[in-house]
Specification:
By secondary structure, the protein is mainly α. The chain is about 60% helix and about 0% strand. The longest helix has 23 residues. The C terminus is likely disordered.
Length: about 200
């Protein structure tokens, strides 16, 4: 799936699960980053295009290590979590696409790192990363869910970048803003409002 589709799915799901407006901003940031992290293994992905400042050079790798240091420095990460995250990034950044980072092993490693850190980050991280894997399971390419076993699993419903992919992204964006509106205003939009449109 496209990076922006992964992002909107992760944000919409997190906004639906975490309804406390005081913790929601931090949760959305965590879920948004977590929903893009699996694609750090793809040079042309949304996340890599944003962090690889010099095209063709893995400058994003250094930026992620710097971010790791600041997450430890400001007590979001424990020292052990910071070390494990550095190892995770070092391995994930240079592996083939839809391999390690798109597997149950990669998912478990990422969640373990967060479990050793600020527990407030754990649930949105699980949502963001987990929804990324579920979404990519729907595509024709599938994912190496049982990495290092190289067989790809998937439901082969649509291609990445297809009209279906883009439509899912638009629908998820719409749902995200509706939920966000409800969370911050405390208002509930009745179902019959939509049936009258």
């Amino acid at each position: 799936m496209l990076g922006r589709t992964h992002l909107t799915i992760g944000l919409a799901t997190t906004a639906a699960v975490i309804t406390n407006p005081h913790t929601l901003p931090e949760a959305l940031i965590t879920a948004g980053i977590s929903s893009l992290i699996p694609d750090i293994d793809e040079e042309h992905s949304l996340v890599r295009r944003k962090i690889d400042i010099i095209p063709g050079l893995p400058t994003g790798f250094l930026l992620l290590l710097i971010a790791d240091y600041f997450l430890w420095h400001y007590k979001y990460f424990s020292l052990l979590a910071a070390i494990l995250f550095a190892v995770y990034i070092s391995f994930a950044y240079f592996t083939k696409h839809r391999g390690f980072t798109h597997s149950l092993l990669g998912f478990a490693a990422f969640i373990l790192i967060l479990a050793l850190s600020d527990k407030m980050l754990l649930i949105p991280a699980i949502i963001g990363y987990g929804m990324h894997l579920i979404a990519d399971l729907m595509t024709n390419m599938g994912i190496e869910l049982l990495y290092p076993y190289e067989r790809r699993f998937g439901f082969h419903l649509f291609s990445t970048g297809s009209i279906i992919d883009q439509s899912i992204g638009l629908i998820a964006t719409f749902i995200f803003f509706i939920i966000l509106y409800q969370n911050f205003t405390g208002m509930r939009i009745p179902f019959r409002t939509f049936t009258r449109l």
